[in-house]
Amino acid sequence: MNCVKCGAELHPDQKVCIKCGTRTAAGGHFYIEKKEAWKPTRNMKYAAAGAVVLLIVALIVNSLKVIPPDEVTKEWFDAMVGREYNKAARHHSPEFTSKMQSGISDTRAISDYLYDDVVNNQAQYTIGAPTYDIPAAPTRANVMVTLTLADGRPNEIPVDLIKSGRRWLIDNVAY
Fold first, then answer.
1. Strand extents, DSSP E, the chain
2. 133-142 long-range CB contacts below 8 Å, 24 or more apart?
3. Are residues 167 and 87 in the same domain?
4. Do 96 and 158 reside in the same domain of the chain?
């Protein structure tokens, strides 16, 4: 008889292995259960594969989603008021960026203007519904941002957007 742990040869009446100290079967009356490694069942494999496929489909659908111009305008406006220049610049079209570089204003100047109205003058703002150049297949959109100043006077800021691939980008702001 051999030790189940270290494999040392044992006497049939021996109760403990001399080499490693493991208890023995002591004559064959002691049953030692061997544990097998865990294996996933077929249903577990199918469930995991289904979850992976579902995740891939969700990622593809999310990547094909086009964010509407009014939501892009809101994200941009929030970034400008919050003075998050890099976040705001991600929503600028290349044409808008080049117009700002060639003119006297830039993202920081526009942000200062909007920050002054919203924070310092305690204005509330609303983002209007977009209007499109061609409703069936729009390539340009206009969204009106209305600032209501503390004294109740409205101030409207038209924001022009252009569609670039699957994204809407800010193309012009009349401030």
1. 124-127, 131-132, 140-148, 154-164, 167-173
2. 138/163, 139/163, 140/171, 141/69, 141/168
3. yes
4. yes
Task: Return the CATH number at 130.
Answer: 3.10.450.100
Task: Specify the pTM.
Answer: 0.62
Residues of the domain holding 26? 1-35
User: How many structural domains is the chain composed of?
Assistant: 2
pLDDT at 15: 81
- Helix H or strand E segment including 75: helix 69-81
Tokens coding 116: 């002054």
Quote the pLDDT of residue 32. Answer: 58
**Angstrom distances, CA of residue 29 to CA of 12, 13, 15, 165:** 11, 11, 11, 77
- Is 20 in contact with 6 (CB distance < 8 Å)? yes
How many angstroms separate the CA atoms of 13 and 30, rounded?
Answer: 12
Q: Which residues, including other chains, have CB under 8 Å from residue 118's CB and lie 6 or more apart?
A: 81, 125, 147
The counts of H helices and E strands in the chain are 5, 5
